[in-house]
Amino acid sequence: MSPISKGQVILSSILAFGTIAEGSIDRKSIVRKYNLKLNQSHPYSPVQVGNGNFAFGTDVTGQHQARRTVESQVAQLKQVERQQAFQIALADRLAPLVAVEEIVGAASALLGETLGLARVLFAEVREPAGAATVRRDWCRPGVASIAGTVTAIDAFGPGLAQELRAGNDVVVADIAQDPRTRAALPAYEPLAIRAYVTLPLVKAGTLRIILSMHSDTPRAWSMDEVRMAREMAERTWAAVENAGAQAELRAERDQSQYIFDTMTEGFALVDRDWIIRRMNTTGLQLVQRPESEVVGHDHWEVFPESVGSEVERICREVMATRRAGLVEYAYPLPAGGRHWMEVRVYPAMDGGLAIFFRDITKRHAAQEQLRLEGQRKDEFLAMLAHELRNPLAPIGAAAELLALGGLDADGVRRTSAIVARQVGHMTSLINDLLDVSRVTRGLVALACEPVDVKAAIADALEQVRPLVVARHHRLETQLPLEEATVEGDRKRLVQVLANLLGNAAKYTPDGGHIVLRMETRDGRVNIDVSDDGIGMTQDVQRSVFDLFTQAERTSDRSQGGLGIGLALVRSLVELHRGSVAVHSEGPGKGSRFSVCLPRAAAPAQAGADHAGRRHASAAGSGRQVLVVDDNVDAAELLGMMLEGAGHRVHIEHLSQGALDYAGAAAPAVCILDIGLPDLDGYELARRLRALPGTAGALLVAVTGYGRPQDREAALAAGFDHHLVKPVDLQQLLGLLV
Hints:
This protein is α+β, with helices and mostly antiparallel strands. It contains 21 helices and 26 strands. The longest helix is centred in the middle third of the chain and has 44 residues, at 361-404.
């Protein structure tokens, strides 16, 4: 068709339909192509065709431009709607989630499904190495997950790590064509990646996290897709950070709650209006009240008993001054009784108070016990001074009287008897002190043998009879007909019974009644000592067997004693696997002490006597005795007593002099002090044994050291006997016979 005929056809269409149909060539195209001339003054301009013919048509160029504008706007609206729908869906998915892994997984899945991706992943980057660890990924069915893998970012192409560290998005449409990734194709092959977009999260100049979305085919990523991914990443990171912060807050809250609930102390928060806002479980247990009666209530209404107390004073002081305070308080329990509380009050940030409190009842009782023990020790020291001064006064007076020289033989005997009695009293006091020291430290070894209880009672009665007679008491014994035997140390058992009988005699007014009763029952031997004396309170009964405990007495201390006898009684009875108890109805109603010991089988008939002494007694008296003591007065007095008994005495004050004398005179008996200034008594004994003249002599150690190990050391050094000062003269003379 020629140009003119074609134009005529087009114009005919225009004439027929009034306009050019959609999709046909517009007017300008026709004019250019067919060299037509149009009159622009009217929408239906005459068209002159090449042969001179004219036609009229409509210009639709503006309509086409408007249509394209509308279509573009519609497309933009649809994209906005798509993004908004994605944002709403993302918000809905993330809203209920609190775990980081769940948030990342939900966001990845939504992005992957929306954009039709092969994989979406989040990875943490560890700098400066640039190692990326894939924490979570979403994969389309059939695509392998790479969660948990660790890869260096630089392995995927040179310069990519720098772009990401700079905060730039990396968009790759085809890894085989992109110059940044072409050289690193082997790194992509295991991941089945052909195109990807990676978005960085940079914080404080450090690359922290990357979001990467993958396609397994080449893909021309649109700006809308990258924008959607960026928005998802930012929202997800914000949600992750919020979840982390919430997790930290929950952890801190849970830890605080755990500490709050498991504290071994009570804790309470009180606001500035004195309302108790919180109290932990321990605190509720200490105050013995349910939470419903405490929390939310006024402090002074919950604990009205503290009004006017030191607790109120310290709480109001801390509330006013904002400086911490502490007080100990006897808290009255709702069920009765009291517990001592240590209350520590601190100012709280909200203007109220933080109160810590704990039960110190045991500590308070221990402190009170220490205070009482200290008081008893002080009283004991005062009593000890008094008891020691008492015998020293007559001893000193007797010494002065003897020094005057005006006494006849009867006066000297009476004065000597006074001194002997007072020395015996002092010796008894010191022996009690030594005994209680040894017993409390577990140093007493019992010389156990079958002991006839009746015989031990008879010995104890003999010891206390002078005191009983002097106080005009009536002493009654109630003993069974059958014999009773216990396994024990006869001397110590007599000591126990004599102590109980002596106490009964001392603490019963003159003319009282004392009863000693013994019975056997169920394999036990029970001995009761009762009196109608001063009795004792419940408090005294609870501590009567403690050291340094005595009943109340007047300043004249007519009963005497140091308050250690009953402590010794209990210790000795327990060493015999027995028990001792006390009972009194109260002051003025007397007391009863009960000793219970395990009964033993009756012993077989005793055999022949043991072998005699190592040294046979010399016929008659008058033995040659060497006395060695650096205490001149003690040596002289001992020498005088021995001479008075008919012995010949030589005195030395140093070990060397004693050796010289022994080598020349060969004494039959050597009485040696241990604490000598040149050679001690142990070494002197060994050297005397080495001399021919004294190898078989009787060696007696006389010393102030009375411990079991001291006795063992003396015997090991060669002594035959070990006596503790002050020496019982009759015992010593008995050794010389």
